[in-house]
Amino acid sequence: MENVNxxxxxxxxxxxxxxxxxxxxxSGGPFLDGYILTxxxxxxxxxxxxxxxxxxxxxxxxxxxxxxxxxGGAIFGYVTDLIxxxxxxxxxxxxxxxxxxxxxxxxxxxxLVIVRFLIGIAVGADYxxxxxxxxxxxxxxxxxxxxxxxxxxxxAGAVVAGIAGYLLLDxxxxxWRWMLGSSAIPSIILVAGRWGTPESPRWLxxxxxxxxxxxxxQQVYGTHASLADLDEPTTEKTRFSKLLEPDYFxxxxxxxxxxxxxxxPCFAIYTFAPQILEAFHLGSGNDWIIGYAIINIFFLTxxxxxxxxxxxxxxxxxxxxxxxxxxxxxxxxxxxxxxxxWLIFLGFAVYAFFSGPPxxxxxxxxxxxxxxxxxASAVGVVTAISRIGAAIGTFALPYSLQTIGIxxxxxxxxxxxxxxxxxxxxxxxxxxxxxxxxxxxxTLNKK
Length: 447
Fold this sequence. Notes:
The chain is mainly α. 77% of the residues lie in helices and 0% in strands. The protein is built from 20 helices and no strands.
């Protein structure tokens, strides 16, 4: 394997056991995000009467983690570019463990909002840390699939949360405490699995630490690997202001906007799935959980399919067609909100499946379009931008359901996904088959 990898070069190396392990454990952040944002929707079934929540506090609790994600991504992406990926790779998970346990002991809505906000910061910090680390180790042939697995992990976390919530509902009036505290369990597993992960050699080279970088790439790719295989400029200073340069700023806008228009309705649906399905008359009591679980499977199936489709069709056509089908399905849900359960379920299923490819490209595009010295910073910024929209949508959804009804709420979601389609048609570049150096110098007017 070592000789094969040397002949191919690092960008064309095989998918080694180390790279497989790295892919699995870097997926932990999105898994926890999906789990944490989904479990709160189920816990709210008990929390609303327990804490006497009105629409304001329900919206605040739903949006708190998203606002935390905004802060965590924006701040710790830059910190990760400054001090390294490996240092931060464990710290954020330890914080999630502590805060998950703390959630079990809250007694007021404000306390829950604060703890959820802090958990969001920790999860948001993991996105630029883990995705930059994975990108900088991944060969170009497998990069799309490896990054696509991160998107799949988000929905896998949501599915697991649905199962956990269903099982915990029978634990009595305090079941919500166990639901919220349960996110500590996967966090502990991830801390153990991430232990011993080396620093990114690309980041080490960008900081002039070439001997350490050489040691890492020879450990991962073979003793004959050299720094020349990285094709990485040395001693590149990290400057946050670089993201304001015209070409980089346009890339920030592109990723930030299409991500926002994708996740704003998606996260709102996830957080308040029980209320939405009830508004569509798709379940009573705990029956809605079955329909919710099936819809989750469509979300997960779409992201898994994107792992191969992103290289087969290319990034640009895949994201454009996905937004077309997402827009049409939301339109159907808005126009026929009083139709049969099967038609409504079909609309959700189509929307869920075609949300998969954009979810994968949320991670692929920002990590490919920016160089090593500002990669994590860029990922952090676009994560923050997307979470502004997601937080607003999640906070507003309870009010929307009360004031304009489920049909008009779905039509608002239609408008958001349509705007995402326009952004992708205007700016989405094609990065399939290119090296990280080639993708980082692309301009958005090159298809």
